[in-house]
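quick one, 228 residues, struct below
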Amino acid sequence: MAHLITRTILALVAIVALVQIPVPVAAEIAGPAKVIDGDTIKIHGARIRLHGIDAPESAQVCKAEGKSYRCGTSATLALTRRIAGKPVSCDERDKDRYGRIVAVCHAGGGDLNAWLVSEGLALAYRRYSTDYVNQEQAAQEAKRGLWRGEFIKPWHWRKGKRMAGEKTANVAPGTCRIKGNISRKGKRIYHLPNGRYYAATKINEGKGERWFCSESEAKDAGWRRSSQ
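---
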């Protein structure tokens, strides 16, 4: 009897071993993309943060050839031109603390993440990945993009570090006067200059708060308008 039970158990183990257990596969999102900033796009309503890179913030200022320029805006425009209406496909890697999908994205057969870093429009985000370190080194040696002059690394800029002469966080950069605030409960709310709480709202980029140039930019980034 014992031998029969043993043979039965072994047979069941063999059957289980033959069963193919599905392995989770990273989700792919594809379709027309809208560029939010230099390292964020939107496809079918889903906000996607480009994996392994960090581009200058929208309001960030850099210098090249002795002149200041909006390097965050430059990265955004360059990415927009690169995509130029081509369908974009993204392979999901993770999700960040803001609920955005973190992914490697391609357009026209090329890796957009790698392209941005190789052109000096973004940096390899070593805190999360070393995938694009070689592209960054090549851009630096060739003095492309940011490497043509002076800049603050985006992760330091978000914490309040500025170049000499650059405006402080609570002074609107140029015409970008809409304040994107994050409440204690984590709600992202933007305030217009004529809003009730506008004057009292302070921007802390270290918390992820930011300035916006338009309401559509704020909405695309996931902020909602203040009710007052």
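The longest helix spans residues 2-18.
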